[in-house]
Amino acid sequence: MKVTFASDNTAGASESVFQAMMDAAQGDAMPYGNDEVTAEVTEMLSALFECDLDVFMVSTGTAANVLSLGAMTPSWGSVLCHSESHILNDECSAPEFYTGGARLIGIDGQDAKIDPIKLKALTYHKIGDVHSCQPSAVSLSQVTEVGSVYSLEELRAITDIAKEAGLPVHMDGARFANALVALGCTPAEMTWKAGIDILSFGATKNGTMAAEAIVVFNKSLSKDLAFRRKRGGHLHSKMRLLSSQMKAYLTDDLWRKNAEQANSMMALLQDGLATIPGVKINTPAQANMVFCTFPKGMTEHLTEQDFTFYGGRWGEGVVRLVTSFRTPKEGVEAFIHSAKAFVEKT
Ligand SMILES: *Cc1c(COP(=O)(O)O)cnc(C)c1O
C-alpha cells in the first residue's frame, strides 16, 4: 500500500467542494467577487467568528500571507516572526516583494513559537531612528511550522507585547482548523479575542482545491487590500468558483470534520511511534504534524516499503510526518507495523 505523510497538500479535495464548484459553474454570475456566493461566504465567516469582518478570497496561502503583511507594513518597516516561519523560509521573498521591501526579522523560540521576551526587545529596537527599519507588524503561525500549537495564553503573551508597541498582528492559519480542533476553543477566541488583526484562513491543505480567505478583524487595515489584491494579480474574475469552495468548506462543519480526521490520525501515529525503541519524538504533535528522529536505516526501510515523507533536510535521521483529512487508519497502522518490523530485525 502506498501511503504518504509528506504533507497535507498531497490530498486532493473533498467531494462536496468539487460539487459546489460544479454547481457554481452553472449559469452566470457577476465577476470579481460581486456574486452571491462570495457575499454568502463573508456572512458565514462573520457568523463563525462572531464579529463584523472583511474577507478577501485568494487562491494560495502565500498570497494570503503576503497581501496581509502588505496591508500592515510600510516598505521601510519590519515584520517580526519566528525564524522558522513559512513567510521567512518558504515564500521566496514574496513578503518583501508585496510589502515593497519590508524586512522580515526572525525571532527564536522553542517549538517554533516566538519567544515573548525576545519579541519585546526587538519591538522597541531603534523606534523613531530614521536610519533603521521600523518594527511594523508581528506574524505568527498557528499551527506552527513544527506542529506545535500556541495556547490562548501564549497567543495573548505575543499580542499584548505587539499591542503595547502599537503593532498589528497577523496569524498564518494555513492549518487553522487543525489548531482550532486541537485547542477546542472558538474561532473568535483564537483570533480577534486573542488580539489577532488579520488571519490567513487556510483551507487548501484541509479540503479545498485552491481557496484561502484573508479575514480582516481590524477593519481599518482593509482600506487598500482590494487594490493590493488586484495589483498583485490575485483578484480572480470568476471569484464564485473560489468562494463556492469556501462555502462548501464551511458547510456542515466540513472544515472541522476534516481537521478532526487529520489530527486523530496524527495522534494514532504518534502513539504508535512512541512504542518503537530508538524513535525520538522531537516536538510532540498537537495537531497533524510531527518531527521525529529515526534510528539509522529506518527512513530507507520505510521508503522502500512505499511510504513517502520528507527527511534529510533537518539533520541526521530527522523526518517530518504530516497527516491529512484523507489519511487512512490502515495507512497509519501499516506504517507503525513496518517501522516496528525494522527495529525488530536490526
Ligand atoms: C502551506 C503553508 C502556507 C501556504 O502555502 P501555499 O503553498 O502558498 O498555499 C503558509 N503557511 C504555512 C505555515 C504553510 O504550511
UniProtKB/TrEMBL annotation:
Its cofactor is pyridoxal 5'-phosphate. GO terms for biological process: L-threonine catabolic process. This is L-threonine aldolase. It holds the Pfam family Beta_elim_lyase. Gene3D superfamilies: Aspartate Aminotransferase, domain 1 (3.90.1150.10), Type I PLP-dependent aspartate aminotransferase-like (Major domain) (3.40.640.10). It is an enzyme of class 4 (lyase). PANTHER family: L-THREONINE ALDOLASE-RELATED, LOW SPECIFICITY L-THREONINE ALDOLASE. Catalyzes the cleavage of L-allo-threonine and L-threonine to glycine and acetaldehyde. One of its GO terms (molecular function) is L-allo-threonine aldolase activity. It catalyses: L-allo-threonine = acetaldehyde + glycine; L-threonine = acetaldehyde + glycine. Residues 5-291 form the Aromatic amino acid beta-eliminating lyase/threonine aldolase domain. Homotetramer. Keywords: Lyase, Pyridoxal phosphate. The keyword Lyase applies.
